[in-house]
Amino acid sequence: GTSSDQHIKDGTNNISRKASRGFNLIECHSLPISQLVKSLGNSINGSENDLGCQKDVYFFPIFLFPDIIGNHIVFSPLVIILVHDSRYRREDSLELNDMEASNRYNIDTTGLVCCWPSEEVLAYYCINHSDMFRAKKVLELGSGYGLAGLVIAACTDADEVVISDGNPQKNISINAETFGETKVKSMILHWDKEQASEILNTFDIIVASDCTFFKQFHESLARTVKSLLKHSATSQAIFLSPQRGDSLDKFLRIIKENGLNYELIENYDPTVWDLHKKYVAGDDRAWPNYDKEHCYPLLVRISSFCE
């Protein structure tokens, strides 16, 4: 509840903000395990107390948890905690075992490397468009740590959120108290296999970030979206992905070949767009070597109905 959130917030006073290349739309700190154990108690236990595990704590400018201090009602900011093992990994880099995992499970598992800029932008976008999720059943594909799915569960009135393709269960458990009435669960989806009948065409909204990295998964990803998206004029999939050469264009062609429609949007949020322009112009040194083609996520809105 509120006291735990305040303990975590207090613990960031002497800790630098998480250093990584990205849009930095959401305040994030890497906190020591001791601080989180003190704040959350048994919410973090077992192997997650290993010193090699790093906890990234996101603070959202949304105030959800009322508390009475003296004669005043104080609202604490929403806190989302992501847990990942950073012992053997150089940040923001792909390794051989990432490729092997992708091939083994027939999904794009690059989301497990780190929280990529596209996922942060997707989470930010979902916060600013929270109304679209009200009473909806939502799926995050290729979630990795599941930041976007966790944000939808905590910040919107979605009926149900399914976070798939990664290892998000421990992050779901740690953040469970922020979800309110929204049902949240994790699931592994093999994109190249027929999906279970009980989930076919049941999702109102599908979200994904940076899932078009591996071209060999484009066809299976498109079929997965088509098979899981509800047959409704209001149902849609929202993808955020950089251009990356011809990778995104090839995926969009496959989307059309599978009978789906899409809208490609370059400027979808004024804050993100302003940051992008500053990075391109070199006016902001926070992201050196920024490259539009590989760094700026375009928004793709996919539907099964013609406008």
Automatic annotation (TrEMBL):
Any one Gene Ontology BP term: methylation
User: A Pfam family in this protein?
Assistant: Methyltransf_16
Q: Name one GO molecular function term.
A: calmodulin-lysine N-methyltransferase activity
Name this polypeptide is given: Calmodulin-lysine N-methyltransferase
| Location relative to the cell | Cytoplasm; Nucleus
Q: Kindly state which keywords UniProt assigns to this record, in alphabetical order.
A: Cytoplasm, Methyltransferase, Nucleus, Transferase
Q: Cellular component GO terms, alphabetically? A: cytoplasm; nucleus
The portions of this protein that span the membrane are none
**EC number(s) stated in the UniProt entry for this protein:** 2.1.1.60
What organism does the UniProt record list as the source? Setaria italica (Foxtail millet)
